[in-house]
Amino acid sequence: MIRTSNPPHYLIVAGDFVRTGGMDRANLALADYLANSSQPCIRVHLVAHSADQSLINHPNILFHQVPKPLKKHALGQPLLNLYGRSIASGYQAQEPLKMVVNGGNCRSDHVSINWAHYVHGAWSPVTIQTKKTDLVRNIRQNLSHLASIRHERIAYQKAPVIIANSRLTAAQISNLYQIDPSRIHVVYYGTDPSQFKPVTVQERQQARAKLGLNDNLPVITFVGALGDLRKGFDILFDAWQKLDQKRGWDAHLLVIGSGSLIFYYKSRCDTGSKHQRIQFLGFRNDVHTILAASSLLVSPTRYEAYGLNVHEALCRNIPVLVSKSAGVAERIPTPTEADPVDMRFADGICPEQLALRLEHWRDHQPQYAEKAEQAGSILRQHSWPERMAEWISCDRGS
């Protein structure tokens, strides 16, 4: 018999518990918070493909590693579901257990909380076909997307409590899957104050020297996967081409991210007349350092449940330009008559419009810096442990 007087153990099913990426960083924060709870008898089971070494070595954590065949998410996801359901069934008979899943990654009847970081039903993947074999890949991608929608519909309907990372995400889940809004709670992502704090002059100089950048020129940064068009790099790339032809445009573009389209963009740079000021950095685990070298972060995303990269840039007092449809945009102060600068732009922005917004930023940098400082001071108020305490209170109060 389960003794309900004991605090429940937790079983969290997630793709990864690592420090890079929005949902992966958030899952790491939750696992770390629970493992270091003031109630030392709590045990945290992690069912995932990978986890930060600090979690694997923690005495209160038991890591159940799930294979990811060929390093493909589509092949690993069914195994997450299988492992998660099997482990949950085995432990439910032995001890009080709270089961946490992300979206549709595990559809168990034992689920207590679904932590929604992304809504597949809110976005249809679109990509650029650069070669004939892309057609087959796109068909597979679309079939996987339809399966993800079906899985998350089942998972959200099963979960007694859903925690969303933004009001946008909460509304999409409620509207798309007819979920009672009273079952959905919003808990924003937190901040690591040791890494994401205002950039000092010395940090900026050191970061730029490390990247070989001119200390006096503006540096614009993009962070996002380049496997499809969701993050909107194609819009920024085309806007950059237009700006690069203009006399006096002296900014440098840093691109952080990997994916199948990176070679396509690089080839277009090679055939252009200029573009030496685009630097593709690939996947990086030192984004906080690269942000220190940046003057602006641009995120023309077509769909973004939250946008931790924008959040972290603002915490460093780096101005941003971000789509209004991104979840993080709801946390950016709106313009006023006294302060008309808006770091958000309308959905569906075209390259010509984005180029104009970039020029406006270039000509009004002090005003954008002031707006970023205002937003950053708000976002830095809540660390990851504080947000996770809020997360736990949503579960207890449901």
Structure commentary:
The chain has 398 residues and is of the alpha/beta class. The chain folds into two domains: 9-190 and 382-396, Rossmann fold; 201-379, 3-Layer(aba) Sandwich (Rossmann fold), CATH 3.40.50.2000. The chain is 41% helix and 16% strand. The chain contains 13 helices and 15 strands. The chain has a seven-stranded parallel β-sheet with strand order 5-3-1-6-7-8-9, with helices on both faces. A six-stranded parallel β-sheet has the order 12-11-10-13-14-15, sandwiched between helices. α10 links the parallel β13 and β14. α10 (308-315) crosses α12. The two termini are 24 Å apart. 41% of the residues are buried. The model has no long low-confidence stretch (mean pLDDT 91).
Layout of secondary structure:
Layout: E1 9-13, E2 16-17, H1 22-35, E3 44-48, E4 50-51, H2 53-56, E5 61-65, H3 73-92, E6 97-101, E7 111-116, H4 134-158, E8 161-164, H5 167-177, E9 184-186, H6 201-211, E10 219-223, H7 233-244, E11 252-256, H8 262-271, E12 278-282, H9 287-292, E13 296-299, H10 308-315, E14 320-323, E15 344-345, H11 351-363, H12 365-379, H13 384-396
Parallel strand pairs: 1-3, 1-6, 2-4, 3-5, 6-7, 7-8, 8-9, 10-11, 10-13, 11-12, 13-14, 14-15
